[in-house]
Amino acid sequence: MSTQKNIAILGSGNIGLALAKGLVKAGIYQPHQITLTRRNVAPLAYLAEEGYKITDDNEKATSKAHIVVLAILPQQLNKLLDEIKEGIKPKKHLLISVVSGVSCADIRQYLDIDVPVVRAMPNTAIAIGQSMTCIGSDNADKSSIALVKELFDTVGVTIPINEELMTSATALCACGIAFFLRSIRAASQGGTEIGFHAPDALKMAAQTAKGAADLLLQLASHPESEIDKVTSPKGCTIAGLNEMEHNGFSSAMIKGIKMSADIAAVLYKKD
């Protein structure tokens, strides 16, 4: 289905470019079917040489596309919607928004057009094809949801969720990248303190974290089941875990995720 439709990615930063490259790599799109927009198009010149269409004209890009990806910051959204409003056709266009904190209804209300909108929340691991992307909508049909899933499956793993949970997905998955990176950084610093050189400690911590995640994903296991396998009575693992918990490890992570969700919910100002 997607190979029959041109796509415009409005705001070709890290997320937009990673999606474009993932679509081409997967063979779903050819470069000439993808239009990339940016206020300063100079950094995109190399992509033009590869066959992508490059422009700073969002309205023109929208008019020639069937699928329009809104890949900009919340504070930039209203200006962008003003630019493309006249070119949006409800029976032609599917809008995909990766804008944090903005509901599908917000976009339709601002446009004053009943166009199908699907929200997608990837994270920065999209750059290596390992994104966790959540997808939701309040008005798109099943075929549109399936199409968006197909697109983002090229750059990682997708999961459909209720649209009202998209702000929570932002905190857990998009912001979550930073949380897990900080925990790996902390582990590597602990490794340095107990005798390893910093580069070795970081590599050891990162690979250990990757292995822990793969245990859960590949075995469909629960964290506590895997934790039990490395905790013996009066052992060093349970001693370390308890010391971390006494200092608020789990509580701090939970509170941080909730705080990020609270802030994500108010990033977009409708006026």
Task: Describe the structure in your own words.
By secondary structure, the protein is α/β, with parallel strands linked by helices. It folds into two domains: 2-167, NAD(P)-binding Rossmann-like Domain (Rossmann fold); 176-264, ProC C-terminal domain-like fold. Helices cover 49% and strands 13% of the residues. The protein has twelve helices and eight strands. Strands 3-2-1-4-5-6-7-8 form an eight-stranded mixed β-sheet, sandwiched between helices. Helix 8 packs across helix 9. The longest helix has 22 residues, at 198-219. The chain is elongated, with a radius of gyration of 21 Å. The mean pLDDT is 94. NADP(+) binds at residues 71-74.
Look at the structure and give the CATH class of the largest domain: Alpha Beta
Radius of gyration, Cα only, in angstroms?
Answer: 21 Å
Q: What is the strand content?
A: 5-15%
The CATH architecture term of the largest domain is: 3-Layer(aba) Sandwich
Helix content: 40-55%
Taking the sheet with the most strands, its summary is: 8 strands, mixed
First-residue to last-residue Cα separation: 36 Å
Count of individual beta strands? 8
- Overall geometry comes to elongated
GO molecular function: pyrroline-5-carboxylate reductase activity
GO cellular component, one term: cytoplasm
Function: Catalyzes the reduction of 1-pyrroline-5-carboxylate (PCA) to L-proline.
Pathway: Amino-acid biosynthesis; L-proline biosynthesis; L-proline from L-glutamate 5-semialdehyde: step 1/1
Q: What's the topology here?
A:
Layout: E1 7-10, H1 14-25, E2 34-37, H2 45-49, E3 53-55, H3 58-63, E4 67-70, H4 77-84, E5 94-97, H5 104-111, E6 117-121, E7 131-136, H6 142-152, E8 156-160, H7 166-174, H8 176-193, H9 198-219, H10 223-229, H11 236-246, H12 249-264
Parallel strand pairs: 1-2, 1-4, 2-3, 4-5, 5-6, 7-8
Antiparallel strand pairs: 6-7
Helix pairs in contact: 7-12, 8-9
